[in-house]
Predict the structure.
Amino acid sequence: MNYISTRGAGIGERHTFSDILLGGLAKDGGLYLPNEYPKVSADELARWRTLPYADLAFEILRKFSDDIPDEDLRELTRRTYTAQVYCNVRDEENAAQITPLKTLGVEGGAPLSLLELSNGPTLAFKDMAMQLLGNLFEYTLAKHGQTLNILGATSGDTGSAAEYAMRGKKGIRVFMLSPHKKMSAFQTAQMYSLQDPNIFNIAVEGVFDDCQDIVKAVSNDHAFKARQKIGTVNSINWARVVAQVVYYFKGYFAATKSNDERVSFTVPSGNFGNVCAGHIARMMGLPVEKLVVATNENDVLDEFFRTGIYRVRKSSETYHTSSPSMDISKASNFERFVFDLLGRDPARVLQLFRDVEEKGGFDLQASGDFARVQEFGFVSGRSSHDDRVDTIRDVFEQYDTMIDTHTADGVKVAREHLQAGIPMIVLETAQPIKFGETIREALEREPERPAAFSGIEDLPQRFVVLANDAERVKAFVAERTR
Ligand SMILES: *Cc1c(COP(=O)(O)O)cnc(C)c1O
């Protein structure tokens, strides 16, 4: 398996899975993709139906990472996908499944279900990929005798998933910037209560955008970046995307009895990482009818899938919503899909994403390319705060199930795309406790709290407060990476 950039660099060069694992963008600013998607045969699909999650992950990942010996990869996936790691299940009987499928009921002539992806250590779906990444990074760094210092900015979900995945890992340190006193008490406690010596929580005196600007400034200092071995774990990381392919297969097997059936997935989307994995599963041959992209008020993606116009927003046009992990101004993984949509033409992708930088977007309606979106099964919808509150209340009353705000956006939009005879699977991306304020508004009660998290706000916290100043952050990192 060879990897190429969506903008054309590296065609004719050799880039293995391990080569691109620790990096971010390709050198031409594009995103890495396999030179072709591996296909799953009918025999394989039949054999995979009954595999435990870890072994299914092994079978899928090995198609993308043929430079890692099978026995090593099997050990890594078995260590990652255990009932001990994904232990925050709401129904004990399901613990072994890692991603249990919960059927709510029949709507529109087919079952409507939730695929639980948030039973990991930080109660959001990002654990599904990040936990594997932690083990893959440690394995690859050890092999080459290298170390890595991960620098990131977070307003909640990504940062805590990265910290819980990298804690205690050899050869890795995490420097995570978060806005001082701007996260919920629960999210703050989740991150700052970690006492591992390789995890550094940096509370920046500013807002989330300031944290992101500092990360950008540090990354743009190429000499510093190289000297201090700075890397990132953002959502464009290829291994994260490919790890997410696995649960589309798992969800499909759980919702069907035979491989002649088709299902649809609805995916609460921000940076297009999660639903990009669904696209790849479909390209590999998983019988997927529709991929439904659900956005919140930040509807860059819904606008594209309705009109063919991709128009990134300015930060002043980006809303702070009650499903904050989907508050994006542009969708950083979207370029991977555009590459496929345009028949894998890197010159055109380069031109379009130049237009994004120079003119703020592009229009595929006029060129006729947009018509092909249908062939890929994509449709979309958007949700508002009122929709989210109504959906949380409705699902609770009708099905006795508490869902978080992002999943509520998914259920709201899924209901607009139901088809008789096609099961609809909504990806559950977080547990309600993470977004308690909206749960209280919708249900006038406290969100459910998994046992492991009782009293977490009272634990001692380990963090430093730094001024909103990239130089100060660089000095802090440099002192600790000597
Ligand atoms: C990150 C996140 C999303 C968005 O996922 P993308 O891969 O960025 O599309 C949705 N819901 C929750 C809870 C998240 O943490």
